[in-house]
Structures are given as C-alpha cells and as structure tokens.
Amino acid sequence: MNLDLAFIAEALLKLLPAVPTTLLLTAVSVGCGLAAGSVLALLRLFSVPVLGRLAAGWVTVIRGTPMLTHLLLLYAGLPLLLDSLAGQLGSSWTSARIPMIAFAMLSFSVTASAYGSEVIRSGLLAVSRGQMEAALSVGMTVPQALRRIVFPQALAASVPNLTNFVIGMLHASTLAFVVSVVDINAQAEIVASTNWKYFEAFLAAAVLFWAMTLVLERIGAALEKRVNRYHRGGVA
C-alpha cells in the first residue's frame, strides 16, 4: 500500500472547518455535565431524602448504558414527545426545526452529567469534613462554605480526573455523525469519498485529535502545577 502523504496534508486542511463543531460539542457537554454533575454529587453527599437516591440511580443508569444508546434514544424519542406536546397545545411547531447538533449536545450532556458527577464527588470526598465544620463555625452559610472553601479544594484535587474527563468527551464527540452532525470524523469521510483514500483521511483526523489532546494535556498539567505550587505555599 502506498501512503499518499500529500493527500494527508490536504485532508488536514479540509478537516479544519469541522474543528469548531467538535470543540463546541465538547465544551457544551463538559460545561453542562459538570454543572449537572455538581448538583448530583451534592445530593448524594448530603444524602438528601429521595433526591439523593434518584441522583444515585441516574448515575448508575447513565454509566451503565452506552453513550451511543443515549444519543439514539433522544434522537428517536424526543421528537415524538415534543410533536405530541405541540399537537395537544394546538401549536404548528414541529421538532423538525431543531438542528441535529442540538440532539448531540443534549445527549452528550446527559452522559457527561453522570461521569462528571463522579469526578466532582471524588474531589469533594478528598476534602476533609473539618473544612466545612470550620467554615460553618465562623458564620458562613453552607452555600458560602461550599463556594469559598470546599469546591476550590475539590476542583484542585480533581484536576487530573477533570483533564481525563474532558479528553474523553472530546473523543466521544465523534459519535455525533450518527445524527448527521459534520464533526471531524464525518468531515474525514466526506473528504475521503472524493477519491476513496479513507485511510489517509482518517489518519489525518487521528493526527488532528492527537494534537488537540496534547493541548488539553498541557493545559491540565499547567493547572496541576499551579495548584501544587499553591498548596506548597508558593505564589498562585
């Protein structure tokens, strides 16, 4: 097999327009996942009646089923639900107006909420209970103690896991092609279809993902180094 290096370089350039879509999917899913995951983690840690058990059940179900299944269930089921609701309300609105990327964002956020919850929970468990007790003893409310004392330390302890979580969601974003979202992998297939050089096109996509992963790893390492300097008493 002759490897067409020139086409790999050409494919790399043609894949660049799809990078913003991939990054957007990753950013939205990570942001929403961590926000929802924080709520789920707190409900479980504080053993909130009923809600704590529901949160634990949500995490178990989502982590126990494939990410692709979440995407397909939402893609197939949500339009039926929305169209039925619109019909009952007498509205002419239809789910066909929803862009395909919205289904991917929602699905990925659902998946990220469960995995993000475990990342946040592990960080919160790494913070001594005495930190919360000390904050309450000086007059802070629970929300203030969480925001000012507990969460900063929890996030610091979670940097390696958070980095791995973001990288995982970046790679998982390739599933968006299932609902016709043109991400990097989907763009690679389009590029390859012109001359059937699929190996070179997907190799270019792999190089692009590798480059983005390296950047995320460097950012995570820099954050971890900064956190370690702070805990040693250095300048943050």
Strand content: under 5%
CATH level 4 superfamily:
MetI-like
Topology as a string of helices (H) and strands (E) = HHHHHHHHHH
- Poorly predicted regions are none
What Rg do the Cα atoms give? 22 Å
Biggest beta sheet attributes: none
CATH topology: MetI-like fold
Explain what this protein looks like in three dimensions:
The chain crosses the membrane at residues 23-43, 55-78, 98-116, 165-186, 198-216. This is Amino acid ABC transporter permease. Residues 19-220 form the ABC transmembrane type-1 domain. This protein is mainly α. The chain has one domain: MetI-like fold, CATH 1.10.3720. It has ten helices and no strands. The longest helix has 34 residues, at 198-231. The radius of gyration is 22 Å and the shape is flat. The mean pLDDT is 89.
